[in-house]
């Protein structure tokens, strides 16, 4: 139920987007106070605007330079109980275990969104759906490769590895 509800809310949100220069979708995982995922996206226009502050790679892949559009925050408000119930039902205890299980659910959802061509139906082509935190490192690259497969740009992987 947890995964299905989150996936349904993501699809509903995506279907409401109207920007025509979106190049990537964000699933920002935040475990600071309680486990949440924030859905958003970035646009080519925002990358161009951010070039005044940073280089193209940072502007394109570093969430700090993205729009910060919180299209959906799952794990706060009415959905906070969904997350706490899921943690309890799965007998998850420590923060690392909870985060990994949460990311695993997001990987499954992203795979399904690609299989169901949700983004193609909306935008005419698939886009990478990036599962990330504020920092980028090897594990972020690995989890996104699992989730996105061929839809993950090599440039994002290189960015995560610091190349």
Explain how this protein is built.
By secondary structure, the protein is of the alpha+beta class. The protein has one domain (2-161). Helix content is 51%, strand content 15%. It is built from eight helices and four strands. The protein has helices at 2-15, 44-50, 56-61, 80-89, 95-115, 118-123, 138-148, 154-161, and strands at residues 22-30, 36-43, 72-74, 129-132. The protein has a four-stranded mixed beta sheet. A hairpin with a 5-residue loop joins β1 and β2. α5 (95-115) runs parallel beside α7. The longest helix is centred in the middle third of the chain and has 21 residues, at 95-115. It is globular, with a radius of gyration of 15 Å. The model has no long low-confidence stretch (mean pLDDT 96).
Oligomeric assembly: single chain
Mean pLDDT: 96
Number of helices: 8
User: How can the largest sheet be summarized?
Assistant: 4 strands, mixed
Strand order, largest beta sheet: 3-2-1-4
Spans of at least 5 consecutive residues with low confidence: none
What's the alpha carbon Rg, rounded to whole Å?
15 Å
Q: How much beta, percentage-wise?
A: 5-15%
Percent helix range: 40-55%
Tags for this entry?
single chain; 4-stranded mixed beta sheet; 163 residues; alpha+beta
Offer a concise description of the structure.
With 163 residues, the protein is α+β, with helices and mostly antiparallel strands.
Write the layout of secondary structure elements.
Elements: H1 2-15, E1 22-30, E2 36-43, H2 44-50, H3 56-61, E3 72-74, H4 80-89, H5 95-115, H6 118-123, E4 129-132, H7 138-148, H8 154-161
């Amino acid at each position: 139920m947890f995964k299905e509800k989150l996936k349904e809310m993501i699809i509903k949100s995506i279907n409401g987007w109207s920007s025509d220069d979106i190049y990537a979708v964000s699933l920002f995982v935040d475990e600071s106070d309680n486990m949440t995922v924030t859905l958003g996206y970035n646009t080519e226009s925002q990358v161009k605007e951010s070039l005044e502050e940073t280089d193209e790679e940072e502007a394109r892949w570093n969430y700090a330079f993205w729009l910060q559009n919180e299209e959906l925050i799952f794990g706060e408000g009415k959905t906070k109980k969904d997350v706490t119930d899921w943690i309890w039902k799965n007998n998850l205890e420590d923060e690392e275990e909870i985060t990994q299980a949460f990311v695993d659910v997001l990987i499954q959802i992203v795979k399904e969104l690609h299989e169901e061509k949700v983004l193609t139906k909306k935008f005419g082509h698939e886009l990478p759906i990036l599962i990330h935190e504020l920092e980028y490192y090897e594990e972020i690259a690995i989890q996104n490769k699992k989730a996105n497969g061929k839809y993950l740009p090599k440039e994002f992987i290189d960015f995560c590895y610091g190349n």
